[in-house]
Request: fold
Amino acid sequence: MRYHIDTIPVWDAVKEGKGCPLCRLRRTVEENDVVRFLGGSVMEPDTRVQVNAKGFCPRHQVLLYGQQNRLGHALMMLSHLPETRARASALLKAEADALRSGQKGSLVRRLSGRKDEKAGARTCAEKLKALSSSCILCDSIRDNLLRYTYTLLHLYSTDSSFRRQFVENGCVCLPCAGDLLAMAAEEMSPKDLESLLGDLADGLDNVMAQEEKDLKNFTLQFDWHNAGKTLEGSTGSLERTVNTLRGYCLKEPK
Ligand SMILES: [Zn+2]
Ligand SMILES: [Zn+2]
Reply:
């Protein structure tokens, strides 16, 4: 699959220094999307149709709520709610009707269908779960990140100064390494793929080794022998470690 190449944001994210550039890009896309969805764009018919169909996941509801635009948030929910209500009611009623008509059928049909008479309810449960787990923001972030991941691989393969800077920064966090490698396996030449594997292995190992030292120092600060001291690398080590292991989720202290 080919994606549109968008080098400037990817280069900028790498130029910012250590830390995963893909997580940085994800954060920027998310912040912009949250603001955008509470702004004028949500009134555009295309966006409105998608918001109505997909809604927002709990994480993105919290971020939207944090924008303190209660009217904008309420208007979106007021648009999404009737459609969701209609779909949920239709699913449940259709299943209730199906069960009722099955029970009214002939004895032979009821006995032969006995094993599977609840299969419809299970399917209905899956559809209800899908109805309450889709998120237009998650979809937008995923689409943007696929494009950025593709661009990163393109720059890695074609721009030696990018590759140098990317590797010097320690490459990417562990979950992003998985995403990067999954796309690299589809898109890269075997030679570039081999280099990337080596760089990811070294990058992650070096970053994690440093974080292990820093985190150890952080825990040693709680020993009374070190009361009042700030040991080397300890500041932000807990946050950096979590962010490397699971992708950016904790802001580092200043
Ligand atoms: Zn990352
Ligand atoms: Zn979401």
Q: What stands out?
A: The chain has a mean pLDDT of 91. The chain has two domains: 7-137, 138-246. Residues 70-104 form the longest helix (35 residues).
